[in-house]
Design brief:
442 residues, alpha+beta, Beta-lactamase, Lipocalin, eight-stranded antiparallel β-barrel, 9 helices, 23% helix, disordered N terminus
Length: 442
């Protein structure tokens, strides 16, 4: 996922004002009520876990793991965690460095001589998203082939074809391609599969019980399907694991993710020096980690998204608190949920949301349908409908259902975007990240 150019997708971080940590009371009853409201309004399906000093202090699972068979989510439900996988991959790379099997300054032409700028790109630049290698998941045709298995040769050819977006180490820009290539480097270095390396160097040593490289979803193994809400929850296609690999091919649970965070920051996986490499942030990016501020505490973690799954985890070293969220269906903003949970844990104020609906028929939506372009940004937004739900899709982006809020007004809470249509003038205004962007219907 490409953060800087995504209009309908945003990477979610926790940002609040600077107030000290003075936990005095953890109101679990209020937090339970918060999740009850989300569930009753079809805003969230998933699980969360919080640990303090290495012990789980709160878990919650809501919604359905399998909508078609009415299977409720539980503490043991397993979710695909998407880009959180990058934290695991970074650990494996740095373990290889500690064992003198890899050098962070080694250029990648040794493994991928056909990649643009291969002789200028070092392993450390793949880790920190400073390689310039184009992010293949940004390509508009990605969704036409992501469910089919790919060989290493095929994936390298796809990444090679994407070329370079900027000179290596001149800036940072998120690219899944970096961590797919790191996966192949690990496999060539250890002569083992990524799945085997994950189990051998992380899962077994710290006692994770529900973390592994995913295959086809197996609901009999407590693996959940993923969904998008379009008037009702609709099952989403499955990305084949051979495509994201170490960039996003891990299945896990919130409890396992908090255990992973505690082990990572507790010195069980890496040396202090290696952990500092992961934590060192330049232009917003660490190595498999991001900084996550919450009040005056600074945490480290990552977010993830794949198919209809979304996830987040963070660890706050000063307070020894770890938090993880995994979802198989989101119809609001995960960031708001994270803020609510952490606010409860830190005994800070938060509100239980009130949801209102503005009902439209399928015929009501016809006047909004079409292709919208703007002179301000190089992005087309196509609006379609699914029943009585309006759908918006930006160039090279997944489609999002829009929630009607008033006459001619819609929103997408997942990404904090609002849309205001003027059918008479054939215009649409997108409000996002403080910007007001005018689009005209073709």
């Amino acid at each position: 996922m490409k953060i800087t150019q995504a209009i309908l997708i945003t990477f979610l971080f926790l940002t609040l004002s600077q107030i000290g940590f003075t936990q005095t009371h953890f109101d679990k009853v209020k937090l339970d009520e918060y999740f009850k409201v989300l569930e009753e309004n079809n805003k969230f399906m998933g699980s969360i876990a919080v640990s303090k000093n290495g012990e789980i202090i709160y878990t919650k699972s809501i919604g359905l793991a399998d909508v078609e068979n009415n299977v409720k989510a539980s503490e043991n439900t397993k979710y695909k965690i998407g880009s959180i996988s990058k934290s695991f991959t970074a650990v494996l790379v740095l373990k290889a460095v500690e064992e003198k099997k890899l050098d962070l300054n080694q250029t990648i032409d040794k493994w991928f001589p056909t990649i643009t700028n291969a002789k200028k790109i070092a392993v450390k630049q793949l880790l920190s998203h400073r390689s310039g290698i184009h992010n293949f998941t940004n390509d508009s045709d990605y969704v036409t082939w992501n469910t089919q298995p790919k060989t290493e040769k095929e994936m390298v050819e796809i990444i090679e074809k994407g070329g370079s977006d900027f000179d290596p180490d001149s800036k940072a820009e998120y690219s899944n391609s970096n961590f797919v290539l790191l996966t192949y480097i690990l496999e060539k270095t250890f002569i083992k599969s990524y799945s085997e390396l994950l189990q051998e160097h992380i899962v077994k040593p710290i006692g994770l019980t529900n973390t592994y490289v995913f295959g086809k979803i197996n609901t009999s193994n407590n693996e959940c399907k993923s969904y998008r809400f379009v008037g009702s929850w609709k099952e989403q296609p499955e990305t084949d694991f051979t495509i994201p690999l170490g960039a996003g091919a891990i299945t896990s649970t919130p409890s396992d993710l908090t255990k992973f965070a505690n082990a990572l920051f507790g010195g069980q996986l890496l040396t202090t020096e290696s952990l500092e490499i992961m934590k060192t942030v330049q232009e917003g990016y660490g190595s498999g980690l991001f900084q996550i501020p919450f009040y005056d505490s600074v945490g480290f973690g990552h977010t993830g998204g794949i198919d209809g799954f979304s996830s987040a985890y963070s660890h706050f070293p000063d307070d020894n608190i770890s938090y993880a969220l995994t979802s198989n269906g989101i119809n609001t903003n995960n960031n708001d949920i994270s803020i609510a949970v952490l606010s409860a844990v830190y005994d800070k104020p938060y509100e239980i949301p009130v949801f209102t609906t503005y009902n439209l028929t399928s015929e009501d939506l016809d006047k909004y349908l079409g292709v919208y372009t703007s002179n301000e940004i190089p992005l087309k937004i196509i609006t379609t409908k699914d029943g009585n739900t309006l759908i918006a899709q930006g160039t090279g982006q997944p489609a999002f259902p829009l929630e009607a809020t008033d006459k001619d007004k819609f929103k997408v809470d997942q990404v904090g975007a609002k849309f205001e249509f003027n059918p008479t003038e054939k215009t649409m205004i997108l409000f996002h990240d403080g910007r007001r962007i005018k689009f005209t219907k073709e």
